[in-house]
């Protein structure tokens, strides 16, 4: 484990905790896209199929359980919690799941490392993770007032992706035969999706004004 | 092998 990978995992963890904290303490999910959260739950459910069959490390297993547990509980909060669900902006969060899920599934059926159920699901989870943030970004653009926590959540997610790329560069030069095109290209696409958001995030931070994305 | 390295990421 290198420092970039650890920092990446920690920012990923922080992003999830920020979101859970917001929902749990303020009892509000305003500005949070249920579509994106459901897609993440699907991403983790399909990627961590090996959780009980292949033991890598205690760290790995615990992190997987945290990401699975947190993503499903966020979905539960927005859908079922009697106070939180009232703040859900259903009319603004209109992105269609299948618009992202179907192309990713087709791509996974065509481009994968091995044609086995687990490998296809694993490739699918990578492709879906790359685009799962889109409903959230669209919602942010529509919501004129982005609260600090939602802004920080998206920022931390983007930082996690950027750190993973540094991790791959590091591993490429330090580990023999560390070449994973599927992971890298999907990861690069995912990180690029945050570029626009990052630009406005830093601008608002630099000028000390509230974050607003242009329509 | 490449596969075992791959699966150690989250």
Automatic annotation (TrEMBL), chain A:
GO cellular component: endoplasmic reticulum membrane
Keyword Transmembrane carried by entry: yes
Single GO term (MF): ER retention sequence binding
Compartment list: Endoplasmic reticulum membrane
Keywords per UniProt: Endoplasmic reticulum, ER-Golgi transport, Membrane, Protein transport, Receptor, Transmembrane, Transmembrane helix, Transport
Main location: endoplasmic reticulum
Residues in the signal sequence: none
Pfam families the UniProt entry points to: ER_lumen_recept
Regions that span the bilayer: 55-78, 98-115, 121-140, 152-170, 182-202
Membrane topology reported for the UniProt record: Multi-pass membrane protein
UniProt xrefs under PROSITE patterns: ER_LUMEN_RECEPTOR_1, ER_LUMEN_RECEPTOR_2
GO BP, one annotated term: protein retention in ER lumen
Keyword Cell inner membrane on entry: no
Family: Belongs to the ERD2 family.
Protein name stated in the entry: ER lumen protein-retaining receptor
Lineage start: Eukaryota, Viridiplantae, Streptophyta, Embryophyta, Tracheophyta
């Amino acid at each position: 484990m290198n420092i970039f990978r650890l920092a990446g995992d920690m920012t990923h963890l922080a992003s999830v905790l920020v979101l859970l904290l917001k929902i749990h303490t303020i009892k509000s999910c305003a500005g949070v896209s249920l579509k994106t959260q459901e897609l993440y739950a699907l991403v983790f459910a399909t990627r961590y199929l090996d959780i009980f069959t292949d033991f890598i490390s205690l760290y790995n297993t615990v992190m997987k359980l945290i990401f699975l547990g947190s993503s499903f509980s966020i979905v539960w909060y927005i859908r079922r919690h009697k106070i939180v669900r009232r703040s859900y902006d259903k009319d603004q969060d209109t992105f269609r799941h299948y618009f992202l899920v179907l192309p990713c599934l087709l791509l996974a059926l065509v481009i994968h490392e091995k044609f086995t159920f687990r490998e296809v699901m694993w490739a699918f989870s990578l492709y879906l993770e790359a685009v799962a943030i889109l409903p959230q970004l669209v919602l942010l653009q529509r919501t004129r007032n982005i609260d600090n926590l939602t802004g920080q959540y998206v920022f931390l997610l983007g930082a996690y992706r950027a750190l993973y790329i540094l991790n791959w560069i590091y591993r490429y030069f330090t580990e023999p035969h560390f070449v994973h095109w599927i992971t890298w290209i999907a990861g690069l696409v995912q990180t690029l999706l945050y570029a626009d958001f990052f630009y406005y995030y830093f601008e608002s931070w630099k000028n000390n004004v509230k974050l607003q994305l242009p329509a | 092998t490449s596969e075992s390295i791959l699966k150690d990421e989250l």
